[in-house]
Specification:
Layout (H helix, E strand, L loop, with lengths): L1 E3 L10 H23 L2 H7 L5 H23 L1 E3 L2 E9 L1 E7 L13 H14 L5 E7 L3 E8 L2 H8 L14 H9 L10 E7 L8 H10 L2 E7 L6 E2 L1 E3 L2 E2 L9 E2 L3 H10 L4 E3 L5 H12 L3 E9 L6 H16 L13 H31 L3 H14 L4 H14 L2 H13 L1 H7 L3 H18 L3 H14 L4 H54 L5 H30 L8
Parallel strand pairs: 4-5, 4-7, 7-8, 8-13
Antiparallel strand pairs: 1-2, 3-14, 5-6, 9-12, 10-11
Length: 563
């Protein structure tokens, strides 16, 4: 973002073209006066020390200094600064059921995906409100702490699936208790809890938890997912989940239980379908809530940046004062002044082009035109490949576009100059912490939880007070543990399947081997052939006994509800 603290002074720039016109007219009058004395070329021979070019340079330097002074008094401001601001809004905690029963396809495409779509559209209607997300099945945990970062909320929504919670069931009571502890204790804004569930396999004290929420003036709204007549739960390959007796499980919406919880929490119950009726009802209820001041940490871009322009102004004035209109006899043959001017003008042009592209990108970024902002930021990095501000802003634009690998590359460029940034300005500490936080989110999106954990740890070393980073670190650690456990289970299952295949293949190998031996030795005695046959039958019997034993052991395992 770029702005002027006193933009009215920009009207003074209107005088610059008039000054240029006056100088051009004065120069033309000077030449006309010389012609009255004779041929200008002959007169130039009589005045070898006169330098029209120096006179021009002195004018342009003076004009540049005047222009710089105008920009200084307008108060240019850009750069980012983290601060806590207060806005008018409400706080909402969403509890999303991720049990296997939410995979039923009685809603399009299924209950869980429909719920995620509804939440995504609900988030788009928020402006100054704060949102948190809890996922639950047999137990509950915080997926996203309460925040005003709606981009992160949508990103975490895309990663939700039933495998996130190992214990199956529908522990609504546990989710409600966790939601009650997740609100900001100091906020005075209205608070609400939205539970999205099918109510299948209800466990625990959900009604009592809803009553406790109502006592704290926190309303509990329920969104029922599914149909009353129920639907099977697909498991892939055109198969459906079965219970311990081998019957196909039919999961139904437990509407009476949902109504009871909503009544206890003094909220509303609405059943979702393939239309947007439930979403509109929720939005209406949220709009009825009393908004109050809620605190949010945001990046504001208003740091004073007039110092650099003031130094340029001072340098131009000094040069204009030092340079004389007459040529120096000592340096007459040396074009040092031209070389210095060339380099200075080139550097100033490059810096101006870089700042102009960054300002343009900031305007587009603020208007949420992230693709156009990306183009502007890339132009700034082309002018100055070492531009930290350009790389940082480009990374943010790519992050907003969902181009996470490219955003990670730009963030790495910023982190590569982290030591220099900290020496220049201690305020860059929080910017680097935010870069590491976003890098951790990118690795989370790619399910590379080990790298995300490392990024979050580095971010917390720079900014230990960031609660969102701390929550994300805990979430990444849990997801990594679940991922490792799933991989270990998969390896054990593959090994078990391989052993079973080897055991089943062994009798076939023995049979094939015996047939080959019979073909090779037609004179084998009947006694030897009978021995080979007996050995084959014994091997097959042993294999069948092992298979039966494994089946019996599997049937003796405790079977519970897995939906």
């Amino acid at each position: 973002m770029f702005r002027f603290a006193n933009p009215d002074y920009l009207y003074l720039l209107v005088a610059i073209p008039f000054v240029i016109v006056m100088y051009v007219l004065a120069t033309a009058g000077r030449k006309k006066a010389l012609r009255t004395f004779g041929n200008p070329e002959l007169l130039a021979e009589l005045m070898p020390d006169v330098s029209p070019k120096r006179r021009h340079w002195k004018f342009w330097m003076l004009l540049g200094a005047i222009t710089a002074i105008i920009f200084v008094i307008t108060g240019p401001q850009f750069g980012s600064k983290l601060e806590t601001v207060k806005r008018q809004g409400v706080e909402i905690m969403v509890c999303l059921d991720v049990s296997n029963s939410m995979l039923a396809e009685d809603m399009s495409p299924n209950r869980l995906e429909k719920a995620k779509q509804m939440l995504s559209r609900l988030t788009e209607g928020f402006s100054n409100d704060k949102l948190g997300l809890i996922v639950f099945a047999g137990n509950a945990f915080t997926q996203l702490p309460i925040t005003s970062d709606y981009i992160s909320a949508k990103m975490f929504l895309s990663t939700i699936d039933p495998s996130m919670v190992s214990a199956q069931g529908t522990a609504i009571g546990a989710a409600l208790d966790l939601a009650l502890r997740s609100f900001s204790p100091s906020e005075t804004a209205d608070k609400a809890i939205i539970i999205i569930t099918d109510g299948e396999n209800h466990e625990g004290n959900a009604v009592e938890a809803a009553q406790r929420a109502a006592e704290k003036n926190i309303r509990v709204h329920i969104v029922g997912m599914g149909q009353l007549n129920g639907s099977p739960i697909p498991t892939g390959n055109n198969n459906f989940m079965k219970d311990a007796e081998g019957n196909v499980v039919i999961t139904k919406l437990n509407e009476p239980m949902c109504r009871e919880i909503a009544a206890a929490g003094q909220g509303i119950y609405v059943r979702a379908d393939n239309t947007n009726a439930a979403l509109k009802t929720l939005q209406t209820e949220i709009n009825k809530m009393t908004k109050a001041e809620v605190e949010s940490k945001i990046y504001t871009e208003y740091d004073e940046q007039f110092q650099a322009i003031a130094w340029i102004c001072l340098a131009l004035l000094l040069l204009e004062f030092v340079i004389i209109e007459r040529k120096s006899r000592i340096f007459r043959r040396i074009k040092l002044f031209s070389i210095i001017t060339l380099f200075a003008s080139g550097a100033m042009f490059a810096q101006k082009a870089e700042r102009q592209n960054i300002r343009e990108g900031n305007k587009l970024y603020k208007a949420e035109k992230f693709t156009e902002a990306e183009i502007a930021y890339r132009k700034s990095t082309e002018v100055n490949p070492r531009s930290v501000e350009g790389a940082y802003n480009l990374g943010n634009a790519l992050y907003k576009e969902g181009k996470y690998p490219e955003a990670a590359e730009q963030y790495q460029l910023v982190l590569g100059q982290g030591e220099r940034l900290l020496k220049e300005n201690s305020n860059n500490l929080q910017k680097l912490a935010q870069v590491l936080h976003n890098t951790g989110n990118i690795h989370m999106q790619g399910k590379d939880y080990a790298k995300s954990i490392e990024a979050y740890k580095q971010s917390l070393r720079l900014d230990p007070t960031n609660d969102e980073t701390r929550y994300n670190l805990a979430l990444a650690q849990k997801l990594l543990d679940d991922q490792q456990q799933d991989q270990e289970n998969q390896d054990n299952q593959d090994q078990q399947n391989q052993e079973e295949q080897q055991e089943q293949q062994q009798p076939q190998d023995n049979q094939q081997k015996s047939q080959e031996e019979q073909q090779q030795n037609e004179q084998m005695s009947r006694d030897n052939a009978q021995q080979i046959l007996d050995a084959f039958l014994q091997d097959e019997k042993d294999t069948q006994d092992k298979v039966k034993q494994m089946q019996q052991q599997h049937s003796q395992r405790p079977q519970g509800k897995q939906w």
